[in-house]
Design a protein that fits this description.
With 293 residues, the chain is an all-alpha fold. The chain contains 14 helices and no strands.
Length: 293
């Protein structure tokens, strides 16, 4: 059994090495990775990159709706706040919400999908019918209803985005588990007396990690758009905490006279989603299990 484990680890390292080699050769994927890393780098260094406070009002009569200039690269909003500063600090909120929400949905969806795929039969049928029913409910409608019923907060938004987005991951992981549960390493674990929990957590889910990582990366872009939509509708991150969607919402009333208030956050949202999609597509192409068949 020791030799089998070492061979499996060597093979796993070989697959990961080959996948990363393909990923590095993909220029679009590397572009997406650079965009994502740059966004997190800027979010971390926001206090160093700008001298202004993202919340404190400026001298409103003098600084209200100032056009982009060397002192205020993205101009100012109706309260005299620096838009560039609010974009930088807003990246912290939007990126954190998207990361935590995707983490919740991926972990929960992976466990549910693995249990359904490995159990099969009646349990699988019941779980998947529940998943189908939940996927039939419009997500944005469900989010709007929940946010309207409860007081808005960042943690509420994180939880709601997470618990309403796990179904697609569950279906994806279930499909992978169905293709793995009849393989020799699973039968060997069963023959040695391993329980279902151990087989699912220690053997099946680790062998679907590449699929899970790719799905999570592709899903972050959608989460960012969902959070931006909630903030645009006034049901997202409560003001004055800056978020990209909220900034687009605040600038709608002066879109013609002060186009920069909404335009720059909107551009950042688009760049972020494109970056994550390029990264996710590159990971999918590099680590597609069908490449190893």
């Amino acid at each position: 059994m020791r030799g089998i484990g070492q061979n499996g680890e060597s093979k796993g390292r070989g697959l990961w090495s080959a996948g990363w080699a393909r990923f590095r050769d993909n220029r679009l994927a590397m572009t997406g990775a650079v965009i994502v890393l740059l966004l997190y780098f800027v979010a971390i260094l926001a206090p160093i990159l700008t001298p202004y406070d993202p919340i404190e009002h400026g001298d409103i009569p003098r600084m209200r709706y100032m056009q982009p200039n060397p002192q205020h690269l993205f101009g100012t909003d109706k309260f005299g706040r620096d838009v560039f500063t609010r974009v930088l600090y807003g990246s912290r909120i939007s990126l954190t919400i998207s990361f935590l929400a995707v983490l919740i949905s991926v972990v929960f969806g992976s466990v549910v999908g693995a249990v359904a795929g490995y159990s099969g039969g009646f349990i699988d049928a019941v779980i998947m019918r529940i998943v189908d029913a939940l996927m039939a409910i419009p997500r944005l409608f469900l989010l709007l209803t929940c946010v309207a019923l409860f007081s808005g907060s960042i943690w509420l938004i994180v939880v709601l985005l997470g618990v309403t987005g796990w179904m697609a991951t569950a279906r994806l992981v279930r499909g992978q588990i169905l293709s793995l549960r009849g393989q020799d390493f699973v039968r060997a674990a069963e023959a040695l007396g391993a329980g279902r929990k151990r087989i699912v957590l220690k053997h099946l889910i680790p062998n679907t990690l590449t699929v899970i990582v790719v799905a999570a990366t592709l899903r972050i872009g959608g989460i960012i758009l969902a959070e931006a939509a909630l903030s645009f509708l006034g049901l997202g991150v409560p003001p004055p905490t800056p978020s990209w969607g909220q900034m687009v919402f605040e600038g709608r009333e002066a879109l013609l006279g002060a186009w920069w208030v909404s335009t720059f956050p909107g551009i950042i949202i688009a760049v972020t989603v494109i970056g994550y999609n390029l990264l996710g597509d590159g990971l999918r192409d590099a680590f597609d299990p069908r490449q190893y068949v």
